[in-house]
Structures are given as structure tokens and as C-alpha cells.
Write a structure and sequence with these properties.
Strand order of the largest sheet: 1-2-13-12-3-4-6-5-9
Order of helices and strands: EEHEHEHEEEEHHHHHEEEHEHEHH
CATH topology of the largest domain: Rossmann fold
Helix content: 25-40%
Structural class: alpha/beta
Shape: elongated
Bound molecules: S-adenosylmethionine
Number of domains: 2
CATH class of the largest domain: Alpha Beta
CATH architecture of the largest domain: 3-Layer(aba) Sandwich
CATH superfamily of the largest domain: Vaccinia Virus protein VP39
Radius of gyration: 23 Å
Largest sheet: 9 strands, mixed
Number of strands: 13
């Protein structure tokens, strides 16, 4: 099936999974703004046709993608960067330069079974590698303020000052003894993003008690004061489940989930649906848009669609696209509970 523009595409799961064949750098131009991006592209390990032999140069390779994604995203967006520890290290400067803020690094621990039988300790010159990384980034939130892009932290304090108010009055605004000024108006690393209710109180206070001539305070457009709902959209979604740390113990794919041609895996880099689900559930809600710009066998999009998200994906290699699309179609009648029996946010 081809789209109007002649792009080979499959729209599955009642329109929740939109899989395209082609270069995602171009295709994503037409996709709706993402809440979650799953980036599982080149590792620099010759893992698939087109994956470079070495991670050197990955930063330059990825930069146009990171930049385009930042332009198409909003401060609600989370980006999960999958790689080896060194492909991530190479790519981190490009992520930062393109407008992505680092949050943390999660380790996929495949366990001892991944090395067992494959390692000759008499000749190996390093410890056996049984991990990959999934680095967590969020789209940097900035506000155009007097012609300059500034951080939320800076803007919050500058607006209070512009209103001619002493900073300690933020405590009165929020109805607390000292926590508001210390947490929300500080410029140091101990700054907290004010919850919507606290933001609303600070903004209302500034507009009521601040100098009349400068009103409105805390406005993006110079006309209306930012609402609680608008403020909520100024940082990436995140829901921290109980009992999950940044070490993800999960065996490498060996079960029937692994797509094979004969006895050989079709895609060396196929990711477990369980880990895709984790990234998606941590950073999005039902109805949100998930991008998978390096689709492979579309594990991220399948998980996203089963979890009620709208997935947009691309795979550049026609043969891989076909296998991925057939895979996605073959399980589209499954219900979320069939693949994810103990779904967290069902
Ligand atoms: C690491 S694999 C993804 C595996 C996938 N997560 C899965 O579970 O099956 C990366 C894939 O991205 C594809 N790719 C590389 N560059 C691309 C681009 N510019 N646009 C779309 N796909 C691309 C490769 O052909 C490869 O199949």
C-alpha cells in the first residue's frame, strides 16, 4: 500500500500503527508532534546493513535527526537513545547541541546467559559485555524572553523581579513558610519545576501585587497569563513506577518473540517488546504520539499501538520494512493483555 505521496506504508491496529518505508529524516516532517521518541538507530558495531563498523562519527551522523526531532517536539517530549555505552558517549554532544537535556542512563542487563558459552576467558582482554544502554533525554524547555531563549528557571525569577516583588514573597503567594522561594526561584541546581498549582499562585500573585505598568506577568504572548494547563505542558511526561531502577534485567531475545528466517534471526537488533513498553509507559499516556524513526521490525510501534498510543515509524530498507510490517500485521488482533499481561496503566 502506498500513501498519497507514493510512500510505501501500512496503517495497522485501527490506525494506531503507521509504518512507513523510507528515510525517517524526511518522513517525520509530516508526522504529528511526538510525546515519546524511541531512537534505536546505528550502534557502530556492523549490527545490520548500513550500521557503521565503528561508533566514530556517529555524532555527525545523528545530529540532523536530533535537530529535526527537537524542532518537531515540544517540552512534553522524551527521547530514549538506545546504543552501546560508547555509541551513546559519541552521540551525547550531538544530542545536547540539538536541544536535548540529559536525564539519566538506563542499563539493559542481559545477564550471564548472554555470555555463557561465547567467551574464552583465557584470551579475552576485557570482561564479557552483556549490556546495552538506553539513555533518557527530554526536549529542552525554553521561553523566548526579550528576544532571547531563556530557561524556565530564569524566566520564573525574572518575572517576579520585573513585577517589582521581593523574592521572599513567593512564599506568601504559595501559602508556605519558605519552600517556594527556595525551590522555585533559586537559580542553582536545587531548582524545582513548580507544580501547576504553585505556578498558578505565583503568577496570580505577581499580577495582583506587582507593578501595574508591567502586567501581564508570566505570559508567553504578552496578552494572557499562562494557565495551569499550559504550564503542565512545559515539561516532559514521566511516571515513575514502584520497584523499577535504572538497571533493566531482561534476557536477550531468544523466545518465539525473536523473528527468524529459518534458524537465523532476521534482525540482530530486535528489541524486547517488554523494554519498549517500559520506555513508552514511563513517558507517555494513552492517545499520545510515539515515534520510532529507526523502525527495524517495529517493536516500539507494536508496543505503542498495543498500549493505545499512536505510533509513527519508518524503516529505510525495503526488505526489513516488509518483514516488520508482516510481523506487526500478524499480531495486530492481539489485545494489550495478551502481550503485556500485567500492564501498568491499563
Ligand atoms: C537498530 S535497528 C532497529 C531495531 C528495532 N528497534 C527492532 O526492535 O526491530 C535500526 C534500523 O534503522 C534502520 N534505519 C537506519 N537509518 C534509517 C533512516 N534514516 N530512516 C529509517 N530507518 C533507518 C535500519 O535499516 C535498521 O533496520
Amino acid at each position: 500500500m502506498t500513501d498519497q505521496k507514493g510512500v510505501r506504508a501500512r496503517h495497522l491496529y485501527g490506525g494506531l500503527a503507521n509504518l512507513h518505508q523510507g528515510n525517517s529524516l524526511d518522513l517525520c516532517e509530516k508526522w504529528p508532534a511526538p510525546v515519546t521518541i524511541i531512537c534505536d538507530g546505528p550502534y557502530g558495531v556492523s549490527g545490520y546493513d548500513g550500521d557503521p563498523e565503528s561508533p566514530e562519527g556517529l555524532s555527525e551522523w545523528y545530529f540532523p535527526f536530533f535537530k529535526k526531532w527537537a524542532e518537531k517536539s515540544t517540552p512534553l517530549t522524551t527521547l530514549w537513545f538506545w546504543g552501546t555505552e560508547v555509541s551513546w558517549a559519541e552521540s551525547h554532544p550531538a544530542l545536547k547541541a540539538a536541544g536535548w537535556d540529559y536525564v539519566s542512563c538506563n542499563i539493559w542487563n542481559k545477564g550471564m546467559a548472554h555470555a555463557a558459552g561465547n567467551v574464552n576467558t583465557q584470551i579475552i582482554r576485557r570482561l564479557p559485555v552483556v549490556s546495552e544502554v538506553c539513555a533518557h533525554y527530554v526536549r529542552r524547555a525554553e521561553i523566548n524572553y526579550n528576544g532571547k531563549n531563556v530557561s524556565l528557571k530564569y524566566w520564573l525569577r525574572e518575572e517576579f523581579r520585573r513585577a517589582g516583588l521581593s523574592l521572599y514573597l513567593a512564599n506568601e503567594a504559595c501559602g508556605v513558610v519558605n519552600a517556594a522561594t527556595r525551590k522555585y526561584l533559586t537559580q542553582c541546581h536545587l531548582w524545582y519545576f513548580p507544580p501547576a498549582e504553585a505556578f498558578e499562585r505565583i503568577a496570580a500573585y505577581a499580577n495582583k501585587h506587582g507593578a501595574k505598568e508591567g502586567r501581564p506577568y508570566y505570559s508567553f504572548n504578552g496578552e494572557s497569563v499562562v494557565t495551569a494547563e499550559e504550564w503542565q505542558c512545559m515539561r516532559a511526561k514521566f511516571k515513575c513506577p514502584m520497584g523499577v531502577t535504572n538497571v533493566w534485567d531482561e534476557p536477550a531475545l531468544r523466545s518465539t518473540e525473536r523473528i527468524k528466517a529459518g534458524s537465523k534471526a532476521v534482525h540482530y537488533n530486535q528489541k524486547p517488546l517488554k523494554l519498549m513498553r517500559r520506555c513508552i509507559e514511563l513517558s507517555s499516556e494513552r492517545g499520545d504520539v510515539v515515534w520510532e524513526p529507526f523502525g527495524g521490525l517495529f517493536s516500539g510501534s507494536i508496543a505503542a499501538a498495543l498500549l493505545g498510543r499512536k505510533a509513527y515509524a519508518a524503516e529505510i530498507t525495503p526488505e526489513v520494512f516488509e518483514v516488520g510490517a508482516i510481523r506487526a500485521k500478524s499480531i495486530q488482533d492481539l489485545k494489550e493483555g495478551d502481550l503485556f499481561p500485567e500492564s501498568q496503566d491499563a
